[in-house]
Amino acid sequence: MPELRKDPILGRWVIIATERAKRPKDFKRDIVNLPEGDCPFCRGNEHETSAELFSIRDDKGDWRVRVIPSRKPFLKSDDKLWKKGKGPYDLMAAFGSHETVIETPEHIANMADLEVAQIKDVLRVYCIRAGEIEKDLRIKYVLLFKNYGYDAGAGPIKHSRSQIIAAPVNLKRVKEELEGAKSYYNYHQRCVFCDICSQELSQKERIVLDEEGFLALVPFAPRFPFEIWIMPKKHSPYFCGINDGEMYGLAKVMKKILTKLKVLLNDPAYNYVIHTAPFKRQYPGYWSTIDDDFHWHIEITPRLTRVAGFEWGSGFYICPVLPEEAAKFLREI
Amino acid sequence: MPELRKDPILGRWVIIATERAKRPKDFKRDIVNLPEGDCPFCRGNEHETSAELFSIRDDKGDWRVRVIPSRKPFLKSDDKLWKKGKGPYDLMAAFGSHETVIETPEHIANMADLEVAQIKDVLRVYCIRAGEIEKDLRIKYVLLFKNYGYDAGAGPIKHSRSQIIAAPVNLKRVKEELEGAKSYYNYHQRCVFCDICSQELSQKERIVLDEEGFLALVPFAPRFPFEIWIMPKKHSPYFCGINDGEMYGLAKVMKKILTKLKVLLNDPAYNYVIHTAPFKRQYPGYWSTIDDDFHWHIEITPRLTRVAGFEWGSGFYICPVLPEEAAKFLREI
User: Fold this and answer.
1) Residue A4 forms beta bridges with which residues?
2) Per-residue pLDDT, B78
3) How many beta carbons lie within 10 A of that of residue A244, not counting itself?
4) Do B143 and A316 touch (CB under 8 A)?
5) Closest-CA distance of chain B to residue A243, Å
6) Nearest to B307 among A86, A153, A305 (CB)
7) Which of A109, A126, A99, A125 is nearest to A39 (CA)?
8) Residue A201 to residues A139, A141, A218, B79: CA-CA distances in angstroms?
């Protein structure tokens, strides 16, 4: 049975995904490219996946975006949310959910190659599903993210999709960001992300795009070369608070940025993760200022370099490209 | 000029290593295997490296372990330790040092294949160099680590070596560990690592080796499959506090563990990082209990899986192997 275990020193929760358990010999790096006709995510092969949880359909009733349970879920809702201790250790059920968003009925690998309207539909599905998941009070956070390409951790099937994971614990990195933003707010009484937007708009060195109310920029201290953040210029804590027009603008910006990565960096593997303030119902006291101090954004990280022991062991990252040069390079097309 | 930049939200320092700056086309994954005779780290080719900083020599005067400045240093001591702010951002000189420890004069790739006495000499060199670096009061932490194999971030030359980085800032991951251990100590008045040792000794499920006063174990909540920690059973905050006999015992345990990884997991890439309490001279007030609450250990992480966007973006790791099964498997030979 899979479970969540907490590192007793760092407080980081880890999913022990025993159902994916592998023998050591299974760790070989095989890349299987499925013939196109066999793709279970293409229109016509719906019977090869689990029953859909949700879909957006066109006027003829054909689906445009389809959500199914992950075929290899890390977290599942069919268990009680048990919690227990053992000596200095804490563990709990691997409770939650794990969904796959099939972003197009066509066999297209990279989100960069979808139409803007299609990307907008994907964003809309994110918000609808997150809203649904929020109803379960045992869920603490919903993470919306994408793995594209082998080095980004994607599976062998080259059909554009993303993932929604709902977890019963706060995620360490997200929590640190919330706490960091709160601490900045407490000192300055201003949102750190809003301050970053103004600084970037006045320096103009790290901005890649400034369109539709969104900034796409290379962060001042990125962990990875060509890392890009997209954020609304207007202060907005909740990703799911975006309206229809903003969603369309964001889809346009995402299409442009992902196309730049594809063309300029030779179709690299990449990840993106959406960081939003957690559900409003959480932290009624502790996070009372969260509407003021957090600001949603998307972190896009192309996978161009390896991460060495120094970085894993110290949390001290080495970025081999000057952020200002990365931004200049990405602005060029 | 390389510099350190601080993420204004997370407080994480990043090295912007502009001297390594690459054009996007340079990110191709080339592996160059150097012919053995051309290895600059082998005995006889000393003229191909910078002047040595330190060495351990045998009775005939031949070196056994040799320390040189890194050929591509991330941090350098030939700059002033300047610090400045720019709007919400903080930056400082990439001040510090970066040394390479050549672990053998022979062209041997994996530390697992060195003699125990040779590994002991490497450990001794770590302590001697760290003691030397400590004299510079601008240095906050010394990280001792190894990258072995391509997936662990090692370079193309297959000659066993490790690295010593001295940084002018506290490293995020290490600081979190110090703070986590302190917080556990404040609550329980016991060292969390000592409690982990007793728990593991009574459960006996995750111990791989229990020899020479050291435990080698798979942690309860590992981030990576087959991750192993080696720690002294006796409470000891400072790695460099180990005596000659303990150093020899540790070398024996390391040789056994690295050989197990090599044989059982098919010579995987791996990293190890030594986590020790920082120099005694630091934190005279804040860390006043550090002798009681921290406990040095070595974290060894084979690189068998890819890390996906979910993990980077959330700090929420997925380990596909049950730690108890990993330990059982590693105990078998």
Assistant:
1) A15, A92
2) 78
3) 9
4) yes
5) 25
6) A153
7) A109
8) 37, 31, 12, 31
Token pair, residue A23, equals 């023998």
Which chain A residues have a beta carbon less than 8 Å from that of B87? 195, 198-199, 202-203
Residue to substitute from A312, A324, A333, interface B, most B β-carbons within 10 A: A312
Residue for token pair 């479970």:
A3
Contact flag B172-A314 (C-beta cutoff 8 Å) = yes
For residue B29, the model assigns a pLDDT of 47
| Interchain pair A18, B88: CB under 8 A | no
How many CB pairs (< 8 A) connect A and B? 287
Is it the case that residue A284 has pLDDT exceeding 60? no
Axis crossing angle, helix B244-264 with helix B116-134, rounded to the nearest 10: 120
pLDDT reading at A200 higher than 80:
yes
d(Cα A26, Cα A37) in Å, to the nearest integer?
A: 27
| Short-list B43, B36, B37, CA closest to B66 | B43
The residue behind tokens 């609808």 is: A128
| pTM attached to this predicted model | 0.92
- Tell me which residue of B220, B239, B219 sits closest to B229, measured CA to CA: B219
The tally of CA atoms less than 13 A away on the side-chain side of residue B286 is 7
Q: How far apart are CA A319 and CA A301, in angstroms?
A: 12
In chain B the beta strands, taken as DSSP E runs, fall at 3-6, 13-16, 54-57, 63-69, 83-86, 89-93, 97-102, 141-148, 161-167, 207-211, 214-217, 228-232, 270-275, 297-302, 317-319
Residues on chain B touching A307 (C-beta within 8 angstroms): 153, 307
pLDDT at A17: 81
Q: What is the pLDDT of residue B245?
A: 97
- The domains of chain A, with CATH numbers, are 3-331 (3.30.428.10)
How far is it, in rounded angstroms, from Cα B193 to Cα B39? 41
